[in-house]
Amino acid sequence: MKASITLLFFFSLFGVSLGAFRLHFFVNKTLSWQDAQKYCRQNYDDLSTVGSKDLEALSSNPLIKEDYFWIGLQNNRNQWIWSTGEEARVTFWDKGEPTILLGGNCGGVNKNTFKASNIGCNDQLHFYCMFVFELIVIHQESTWEEALLYCPQHYLGLAIIDSKDMMVEAKINSTEADTDDLWIGLRFLAGSWFWVNGKGVDYKAWSSNGELQCPAMNQRCGVYNRAKEVWTPTDCVRRLNFLCVKRKYIN
Known about the structure:
Layout: E1 4-11, E2 21-31, H1 33-43, E3 46-47, H2 55-59, E4 68-76, E5 79-82, E6 106-110, E7 115-119, E8 125-142, H3 144-154, E9 157-158, H4 164-173, E10 181-189, E11 192-195, E12 221-225, E13 230-234, E14 240-247
Parallel strand pairs: 10-14
Antiparallel strand pairs: 1-2, 2-8, 3-8, 4-5, 4-6, 6-7, 8-14, 9-14, 10-11, 10-12, 12-13
Protein name: CLECT domain-containing protein
InterPro entries: C-type_lectin-like (IPR001304), C-type_lectin-like/link_sf (IPR016186), CTDL_fold (IPR016187)
């Protein structure tokens, strides 16, 4: 059984990882960096890749008893890289870090300062693992309901674009689409718009016409318009490309 709890779901959009978003899991056990990496790769995708805006939320976990916790940061021949092999362009080092420390070739986060430090790799610390996801364009023309069925059969589900960062992700991954409008998991039923995971629409990116409070029957499915980078309501029986969510790494 995985000794972990889901903490939060958020983006880390930076460097060569642009276009990926991550779900982080806190693992309630203490291991060396290498053993933590092994554990994450066996049970998730890898040790967590993070951005500066993620650190406060990760550090606020009351289950972390030590001053530091591991993330997927390591020094490889005087170059800091992520556990996934990508270059780590770290902008959130703690003051005076990284230090020239014998054996300090692994990266952790100081939970008190929300900053990174280099730490001896054999230290026994709690850590975060991650699953990594991305959006993918499906180059077939389907109705909204056909897209809704297709995505979970082949990937994880129809895309939910419920934040500014998700809009960036949609922009990046829709450039090769064959249609300007792409189906997303946005639907109007029973008097309100909602996402296919059951959540209401808090973040909004509607076109200039605004959110339709009582749309006509042929305006009750949502699309992402890649030319204008907005959502628009449209007829559910139109045949369009669509965006699914998929795992970036499969173990």
